[in-house]
Structure to design on (234 residues):
């Protein structure tokens, strides 16, 4: 099987805030009054520095996986890290309650294959948290060249490399296209994007809307980042 997970941009700053944001989104979806997610089997796919996995490991059984070992020394002893070579075939079917794909799909060329694999790993009614940069937003977060990513994929990567920005390839996808792929992979999709923006203080979101303005759902189409909960649906 061809490799479909690639290295990613591992960072270690702001990871605790990000982990709490993910947890709050999951808790709201699960409609629980608990202030911590607990007693779940979780797989953090494309775990990067490992800080998010370490946070969830405090109250859950967590496996952190990536194709490159970029785990920070400060959390290495706190997580179960597994370096994978090509795919997730070493994990059993239906072994996890929750999967986390935090800014991983942008580094994944075959997104459908990965989503189908995540579906396989989840228990019945298991869920997957997805955060993903939106192709329709004018400035993508990796090369930061306005509108360049609107070009065809090969030309986009070639020009980014020519301009000295392409340290590794990214494969951006739009909000409608990602929702469609998730459906093909047999997930039901809950779009949390606008809810997180509208309640930014509650979710520790970096996107703040002034004057108490509440944005409509259609904003998901052009939001910088889209956030979803995918539920295994058969």
């Amino acid at each position: 099987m061809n490799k479909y997970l690639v290295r990613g941009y591992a960072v270690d700053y702001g990871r605790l805030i990000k982990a709490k944001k993910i947890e709050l989104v999951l808790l709201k979806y699960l409609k629980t009054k608990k202030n911590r997610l607990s007693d779940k089997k979780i797989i953090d796919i494309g775990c990067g520095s490992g800080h998010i996995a370490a946070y969830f490991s405090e109250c859950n059984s967590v496996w952190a996986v990536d194709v490159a070992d970029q785990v920070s020394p400060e959390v290495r002893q706190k997580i179960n890290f597994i370096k994978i070579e090509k795919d997730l075939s070493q994990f059993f079917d239906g072994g996890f309650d929750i999967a986390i794909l935090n800014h991983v799909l942008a580094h994944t060329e075959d997104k459908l294959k990965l989503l189908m694999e995540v579906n396989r790993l989840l228990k019945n009614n298991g869920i997957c948290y997805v955060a993903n940069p939106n192709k329709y937003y004018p400035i993508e977060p990796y090369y930061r060249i306005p509108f360049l990513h609107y070009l065809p994929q090969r030309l986009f990567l070639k020009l980014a490399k020519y301009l000295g920005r392409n340290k590794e390839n990214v494969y951006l996808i739009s909000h409608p296209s990602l929702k469609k792929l998730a459906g093909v992979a047999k997930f039901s999709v809950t779009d949390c994007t606008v809810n997180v923006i509208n309640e930014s203080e509650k979710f520790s979101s970096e996107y703040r809307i002034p004057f108490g303005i509440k944005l409509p759902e259609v904003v998901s189409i052009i939001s910088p980042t889209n956030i979803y909960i995918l539920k295994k649906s058969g």
